[in-house]
Structures are given as structure tokens and as C-alpha cells.
Amino acid sequence: MHDDEQAGDPGRGSGGQAGTPATPASHVYYFEVGDGVWHGRFELRVTSWRGLLAARVGVRDTLLVVAMWTVQALTGPSRLESTVVARPDAGAHGVADNTVRLSVLGVTVYLLRERYVLLADGLGVTVRAVERFGPFPRLLVRRFDYPAEIGADGLSSTYHMPLLGSAWTARYRVGADRRTLAGELVCAWARATEVARRTGDRPS
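Above: the chain sequence. Below: its structure as C-alpha cells.
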């Protein structure tokens, strides 16, 4: 973990009253809402095969896209499982860990482990990520960092993610019940959607 958090005023979150500091938006998002186990589905749709070829993402990433698209065309959306562990006392301003698993017929097709390092302004986040495609450990593994920001109300987020050789923008919105989440990930040649529901507390 790097101590490179930005300095700034605490972000405006929910629950604050006049004369008292509001809960930072990133704390609302990861600690109050996110902490726990989530289940849902993930679906990838290639919107432009010509755009994929023009993007020159490389042979490896092109084959991964074709494989993911083919599997979902045959079996439907992938099953999504996510476990978020809030660590408000870690780091300078709090940390959250997230393990995301996409599976088809019980076989892992994508595994993502992320650490969200919260910044001093209460909105910004630095994400440290390790991803793996396929069910085999130590194969097709990549480490990368990227930025994110949380909406001022603590119920939305935007991630700027380098995935499959392209720049993606992922936007998520928490439902009114604070137990559902909908997301859309977009790049120049594809669109992916996620829907998830918080199904319980994380294992202690």
C-alpha cells in the first residue's frame, strides 16, 4: 500500500448535521453500504467488433474478449460473487478490500482482488488491483492501479479502469434500499452490465 493520498477537505457524505462533520462519502459507500457479501450477474456485449480490431488491444486480450463473449453467448450472463471487507482503521483514511469472482457453471472465468485506498478529500480512491482470467492460478494474472471517485451522496461511484487493452469507464449506483447495486462498464468497443444484491454479512 502506498501513502500517497491527496490532501483536502473531508468530502460531504450523508448523516451530517449542522455544526458536526458529515460522514465522508467514501466511508458511506464502502463501510456503511458496501461491507458484506453480494451476489448478482455480469454480462458483456461487444458493441463493435470493428472497433475492437481498430483498438489494437493485442492478441491475448482479443482472444480473451472472444472467449468471454462466446461463453456468455452459449450460457448466458456470468454469476457474480463479491465480498467487501471494510477496514476503516487501516491506512491514513481507511481501506476496503473486495474479492470479485465471475463464474460459469461453477467454473471461475475471472477473479479480481482489489484494495480501495481512500483519500483525504472523502471522495477520491486509489485502487490497487490484481486480476486473473480463467480457473488456473498464476496464469493470465495482471497487477494494475487506477483512480476512482465516489459521488457526493456516497451512493454512486465512477472507476477509470484499464481492462482488456482499453480504457473503460465504470459507473455504479446503489439502490434506494442500499442493498442493491447496478453498474455499467463502457469502452470504445464494448458495454458490460452488472447487477448485484447484498445477501449477507461478510464472514468474520
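Confidence is low (pLDDT under 50) at residues 1-12, 15-20.
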